[in-house]
Write a structure and sequence with these properties.
Blueprint: H1 8-25, H2 29-53, H3 57-66, H4 73-88, H5 102-112, H6 123-134, H7 144-151, H8 162-178, H9 183-197
Length: about 200
């Protein structure tokens, strides 16, 4: 049985909200350029770390994604590299502290040991991984900031079901492409706009 998704009316409102936040910054070329290059810069960072530690870019991005919940971006990168460095030296999870949940730290080590991965059912972290590792045009990271942009003053769904996630992802990609951006670029531009508006 297919899970109920957002109505056409609500999707129209989501589109209007995303356009509202985009229009707030579209005249600021610096902010737009920053959004357009955000995932590319993250990908370049992962490639550099991958070369330094002799592992794949995908694995670095997976560790980064595993450590991302409730973690600020710069600290997320610090934690990811520190975990990889500790693991490379034969260290264990208890040898290092990170600014996210212990379960996420354990997952990062398990990813490095090839006994875990970011599962497709982990919709947001999987999209984040694909956007960073592959600059995947078919994935959009629907995080808390993107949800705030999508729903603005509307009631946010109590749970982000796979059906609703897919609707928001497809809408973001289509809208972004209509404005000359890849879906993940558009999401990053809107991310900057909504954070700046709060």
């Amino acid at each position: 049985m297919k899970t109920k998704g957002l109505s056409s009316y609500r999707l129209k409102k989501v589109k209007e909200n995303l356009l509202h936040f985009y229009n707030e910054v579209k005249g600021d070329q610096e902010l737009v350029s920053e959004g357009e290059s955000w995932y590319l810069q993250a990908n370049i960072w992962c490639e550099r770390v991958a070369v330094n530690y002799g592992i794949s870019t995908y694995k670095v991005a997976s560790v980064l994604s595993a450590l991302s919940p409730r973690n600020k971006w710069e600290r997320n990168k610090q934690d990811a590299e520190a975990v990889i460095k500790t693991w490379r030296k034969g260290g264990k999870p208890e040898d290092i502290k990170v600014c996210t949940f212990t379960s996420n730290k354990l997952k990062a080590f398990n990813i490095l040991n090839s006994v875990a991965e970011i599962e497709p059912k982990s919709l947001k972290t999987r999209a984040f991984l694909l956007n960073i590792a592959y600059l995947d045009r078919e994935a959009v990271t629907v995080d808390v900031w993107h949800l705030r942009a999508c729903f603005d003053r509307m009631i946010v769904p109590k749970s982000l079901t796979p059906t609703i996630y897919d609707q928001l992802q497809k809408l973001t990609i289509k809208l972004g492409e209509s404005l000359g951006h890849k879906g993940y670029e558009f999401q990053a531009i809107v991310w900057g706009a909504v954070r700046g508006s709060l």
